[in-house]
Amino acid sequence: MHIPHIELPDHFSVQQSVGCIRVNLLFATYDLLGQPSYRPASICREDGLSRTRFGRAQRNGASAGALRPRRPVFEFAMAFLAVGLLAYVAIDRGYVSLPLSGLEAGRSVGGADVVGIRFAVCAGPGGTCVIDGDTIRVDGMSIRIADIDAPEVRNYGCPEELALGRAATARMVTLLNEGPFVLASYERDEDVYGRKLRILERDGHSLGMTLVAEGLARVWDGGRRSWCG
Length: 229
What we know:
The longest helix is centred in the middle third of the chain and has 20 residues, at 73-92. Strands 3, 4, 5, 6, 7, 9, 10 and 11 form an eight-stranded mixed beta sheet that branches. The protein is elongated and about 70 Å long. Residues 37-43, 45-67 and 100-110 have low confidence and may be disordered. The protein contains four helices and twelve strands; from the N terminus they run H-E-E-H-E-E-E-E-E-E-H-E-E-E-H-E. It has two domains: 1-71, no CATH class; 108-219, CATH 2.40.50.90. By secondary structure, it is an alpha+beta fold.
């Protein structure tokens, strides 16, 4: 990319100089992206030429309406595209939580919290996401789904367990995103790892039991069993 040589007149103020440099860098970006009609050669010179904000040259003293500046459609489009892409990545990785329609999230039903935000598969620490078929996070808080045991996707014992664990994880994401659900209490508040123990319910039905019915989890009986062989 060609970086233009910028000559600043001595009488330019700091604000004028900064603005001049910013516009020249913008024109250089246009060159890189294949917009050759935008040239920065005279943006800071005093040779009888002036340049409008978006690159059209005109003589000093010419009518302002004679040449209309090009609207910055390209910059706006690129900015919206970048913001949209960042938002998609943040939501997809669970860094940002979106509300779901239905029950009012944040209120309580029978003493249990209602969760109504969108989930994704966890891609890092924190956030709101699904770790595996029986463990989720809500705003960074780890919750063990207390009434089921699902296959592991990290410390798995065989390829078959990994495949089943991934299927259980994806299915749990789908179930949670179908609408708000309740974090119902369990006989204990936490497990030995400090995770909250809760049963996930919607309309009085356990979401964990849906995984059990589909062969993606087992009813929790107090101990883990192998998913291999």
